[in-house]
């Protein structure tokens, strides 16, 4: 037992742990996860005007609302009943170019008459929430602020 005590040097002191390699590994993991993640588009803010928010003394709207429907498969339709037009059908794509074109045409026509565009959105119960957010983002991009949600059958 005496022999082990003498073999230790008194100059050695307390043992230390070198953590520089641990820090390198942590930074490598951090870089890996930052590169490997996908960044999704942020949802835009949509200032909604609810139906009961009209100020007293203002005249009711003279514009027919544009009806947008999202079915259970994620397909987007514009119009009602016999005039319903199929727009974007790829529910996996976050882009809705045909809807954007329709919204811009509708908004330009309404703004030409010095009125505000009004959109009525009908969503099927089986529709994906992300698809609804993509449609709401299209409203923001088209500068349409008055949106009403509908559950009525046409």
Strands across the major sheet, in which order? 3-2-1-4-5
Q: Which outline best applies?
A: elongated
Secondary-structure element sequence? HHEEEHEHE
Q: What is the number of E strands? A: 5
The major pleated sheet works out as:
5 strands, mixed
What does this structure look like?
The protein is α/β, with parallel strands linked by helices. The protein is built from four helices and five strands; from the N terminus they run H-H-E-E-E-H-E-H-E. It has helices at residues 2-7, 20-36, 97-112, 129-141, and strands at residues 66-70, 76-78, 85-86, 118-123, 146-150. Strands 3-2-1-4-5 form a five-stranded mixed β-sheet, with helices on one face. It is elongated.
Summarize this, please?
With about 150 residues, the chain is an alpha/beta fold. Helices cover about 35% and strands about 15% of the residues.
Blueprint (SSEs and pairs):
Blueprint: H1 2-7, H2 20-36, E1 66-70, E2 76-78, E3 85-86, H3 97-112, E4 118-123, H4 129-141, E5 146-150
Parallel strand pairs: 1-4, 4-5
Antiparallel strand pairs: 1-2, 2-3
Give me some keywords for this one.
5 strands, alpha/beta, five-stranded mixed β-sheet, 154 residues, Nucleotidyltransferase, domain 5, 4 helices
């Amino acid at each position: 037992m005496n022999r082990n005590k003498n073999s230790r040097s008194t100059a050695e002191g307390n043992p230390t742990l070198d953590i520089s390699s641990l820090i390198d590994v942590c930074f490598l993991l951090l870089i890996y996860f930052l590169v490997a993640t996908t960044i999704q588009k942020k949802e835009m803010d949509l200032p909604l005007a609810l139906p009961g928010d009209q100020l007293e003394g203002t005249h009711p709207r003279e514009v027919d609302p544009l009806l947008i429907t999202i079915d259970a498969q994620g397909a987007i339709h514009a119009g009602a009943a016999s005039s319903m037009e199929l727009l974007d059908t790829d529910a996996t794509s976050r882009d809705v170019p045909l809807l954007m074109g329709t919204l811009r045409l509708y908004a330009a026509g309404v703004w030409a008459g010095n009125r505000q565009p009004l959109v009525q959105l009908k969503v099927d119960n089986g529709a994906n929430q992300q698809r609804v957010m993509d449609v709401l983002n299209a409203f923001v991009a088209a500068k349409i602020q008055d949106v009403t949600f509908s559950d009525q059958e046409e």
